[in-house]
Prior knowledge:
Elements: H1 2-5, H2 23-38, E1 42-46, H3 50-62, E2 66-70, H4 80-85, E3 89-92, H5 97-110, E4 114-116, H6 123-129, H7 131-139, E5 148-151, H8 156-167, E6 175-178, H9 185-192
Parallel strand pairs: 1-2, 1-4, 2-3, 5-6
Amino acid sequence: MSKQAGCNIWLKLENMQPTQSFKLRGIGNMCAKAVLEHNAKRFVAVGDTNAALAVAYSGRQLGIPVVVFVPAGIQPSAVRPKIELEGAELIEDGRSVSDAYSAACVYVQNNDGATLVDSADNPAVISGNSTIISEISIQLHRKEPAAVITPVGSGGLLAGIVTGLHQCRWQRVPVIAAETHNTNSFQQALLFGASEQLPKSCDAAG
């Protein structure tokens, strides 16, 4: 790849994480803090996604039960068996991810010690994701990269990367955020100056 591009290209292989995605960085950090600082007794997640898998893995490592809400009657994702293998309980509720999320919120309200794990919009998640940049800094022997290219979905990874760049004093390093067609919610938000709701058929899995 570097030879074809005519420059050094370095890949951060997050697929080598125990849950095969970067999600474990931020979610693992949030789950650990929830136990240490808030005495969490149960973790709750939504959707059979990489994020839910990271919650299930974190729960097993911390000895905390995990409940994952998913819409009823949908085709299970390839991740669902892995979530179940981690020992999480799956509950089908509603006809959409929004319905499942609402059910999860009600569950948290009705169960003391239950914590809904947000995969992006949480300081602990962003802080955990920022470790990607601190590791890159060490691996590049503190040499500033010309740019960082990252996928963007719900925004947790992007926020973590920007945070990490500031922590390493690499504020001037440009960040190129890439989205798939029809799930470009971040681009739409930048274009219109506000969060944009995409059609349900275009929703991306987290």
